[in-house]
């Protein structure tokens, strides 16, 4: 686990209210639409896709707010600054919780840190849900 203070990030974003079970069906079209919007507006993409979540549920069917975010130069929306605990998950998506979120949440609790309810996934490398070479940074907001 590492602790970071992240600066605000200018993005294009699409906010949805959905469940964990619905993310797979919504992510591809949302990411494609954001890239098309950036191109249509002449904006330069300057970072990997970020999924920003608020109050993620403990099961696959509870709904929560999720924003699909594409970092761009010259956009008109911002992800706010974030103090977070983070880790890198490398591997398939079905191991993201067991090998990524769970150990990070345990480390946060062991360090006596308090989560804020915001989390982000930064898709540094994405080759599909089953790819073993995906590289996803998990960031969980923690109170200062």
Verbal overview:
It is a single chain. Helices cover 26% and strands 45% of the residues. It is an alpha+beta fold. The chain has a single domain, classed as Regulatory factor, effector binding domain (Multidrug-efflux Transporter 1 Regulator Bmrr, Chain A, Alpha-Beta Barrel), CATH 3.20.80. Strands 1, 2, 3, 4, 5, 6, 7, 8 and 9 form a 9-stranded antiparallel sheet that branches. The model has no long low-confidence stretch (mean pLDDT 94).
Describe the secondary structure blueprint for this structure.
Layout: E1 2-6, E2 9-19, H1 20-41, E3 44-45, E4 50-54, E5 63-73, E6 77-79, E7 82-90, H2 96-110, E8 115-125, E9 135-142
Antiparallel strand pairs: 1-7, 2-5, 2-6, 3-5, 4-5, 4-8, 7-9, 8-9
Q: Kindly name the structural category.
A: alpha+beta
CATH architecture: Alpha-Beta Barrel
The average pLDDT score comes to: 94
Strand elements, count: 9
Instruction: Compute the separation of the termini in Å.
Output: 16 Å
CATH topology: Multidrug-efflux Transporter 1 Regulator Bmrr, Chain A
Largest sheet: 9 strands, antiparallel
The count of helical stretches stands at: 2
**Gyration radius from CA atoms, angstroms:** 15 Å
CATH H-level superfamily: Regulatory factor, effector binding domain
* Total discrete domains: 1
Question: H/E element string?
Answer: EEHEEEEEHEE
Could you say which overall geometry the principal axes of the C-alpha atoms support?
A: globular
Share of helix among residues? 25-40%
CATH class: Alpha Beta
Low-confidence stretches: none
């Amino acid at each position: 686990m590492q602790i970071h203070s992240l600066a605000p990030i200018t993005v294009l974003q699409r906010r949805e209210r959905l469940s964990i079970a619905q993310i797979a069906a919504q992510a591809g079209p949302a990411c494609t639409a954001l890239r098309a919007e950036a191109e249509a507006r002449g904006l330069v993409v300057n970072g990997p896709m970020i999924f920003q979540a608020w109050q993620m549920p403990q099961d696959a069917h509870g709904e929560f707010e999720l924003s699909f975010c594409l970092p761009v130069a010259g956009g008109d929306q911002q992800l706010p600054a974030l103090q977070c605990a983070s880790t890198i998950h490398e591997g398939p998506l079905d191991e993201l919780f067991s090998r990524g979120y769970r150990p990070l949440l345990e480390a946060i609790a062991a360090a006596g840190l308090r989560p804020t309810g915001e989390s982000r996934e930064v898709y540094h490398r994405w080759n599909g849900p089953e790819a073993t070479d995906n590289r996803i940074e998990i960031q969980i907001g923690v109170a200062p």
